[in-house]
Specification:
There is one protein chain. The chain is of the alpha/beta class. It has 2 domains: 105 residues, Enolase-like, N-terminal domain (Enolase-like, domain 1), CATH 3.30.390; 246 residues, Enolase-like C-terminal domain (TIM Barrel). Strand 2 and strand 3 form a beta hairpin. Bound molecules: magnesium ion (MG).
Amino acid sequence: MQRRQWLGAAAGAAFAASVLPGQTRKSPKIAKLRFYRAMVGPRAWLALQVETDNGLTGLGDATHAAAEPKVCVTMARKMFAAMEGRTVFEVEGLRQVALPVIAAQNGGRDHRPAAAAFAGLEQCLWDLQGKVLGLPCSELFGGRLRSQVHNYANINRATKGEARTPEGFSQMAQRGLDAGFDAFKMASFDHLKPNDPDHERFADGTQLGIDCIAAVRQTIGPDRDLLVDGHSKFSREQAIEVALRLEPQKLFWFEEATPGIPNLAALNAVARMPTAGGESLFGVGEFLPYIAGKAVDIVMPDMKFCGGMLELKKIAAMAEAAGMACSPHGPASPIGNMAAAQVCATLPNFQILEFAYGEVPWRGECVTPEEPIGKGGMLEVLDRPGIGYELNGKYWEAYG
Ligand SMILES: [Mg+2]
């Protein structure tokens, strides 16, 4: 038998074993879509729920920080209409439906509601697949390399208004420490205006941001991890100078200090600490030049904006090939955080995951089972079918 014939015969035998003549595959079909919102201060968490024709439900997180996520709902309805009646296994099919809708949003930040809608629906399909097969999503993404995922506490949103001082950031870091976290992220340059013509104001503001970082380092001690996000406030030259001034703080990473691949790559070439970024990029297409251009050491796809769980896996694989680590971005609800964790559990180049610390006191209870995050910011990757959560109705209202 020729090799090609043998391969064909073997594939046919495998197919025959799973689907006998006269049988059809029994894959649940996508039937209904619902939206649920939970208010988190000035922002909202948006959860999507897809129901199948046999009554299974799958959850997904489409949070993109807007209080009224109406655009996201409209986008999700549009994508859902093209998927109704198709099976829960057609993730690549959903991607084909979603790509032109997202591309029509003119790129940049405008793509976020559409990308979040896609990611929310995509998570619903993975959650449903896990429920159909009785497996946690990590088993569908290659199997676990770890059963817990290390999270850092992003204390930036929880540190509000007048508390954005060295003392205020320190107090919030102390709260995170008391809650058991051992890694912290802050963005203490948020008050800066890029290209501020008032040079003195910009210099004073930069010093204040550095003072806040030094104060948090003092609070958490030398052995815990400190991550700083520059939110692209600096020019290339300013970013390089600030990186130099931050060297004594022994940062775990310096994130998106300056906008654009050429500026980031120039910073990355000289910074003595690791650099990280990529949270707003969509898909393998946008990550390719970012990775090839050596913009950063650590890529940070945000599952909501990068194209979902499968795209996160693909992007992480590209980073792996380039010798880069993958640390997903994601100030999400517990659903989005766990969906990312299900994928992160399978990544050989996974480093650390984002956890939006201190946004609301009821965070852990808004899902069942309760969010299993413990000492050292270690999140237990749920060993239940799918992503692993159901909504606790006490905290979510029907929306849209
Ligand atoms: Mg960031």
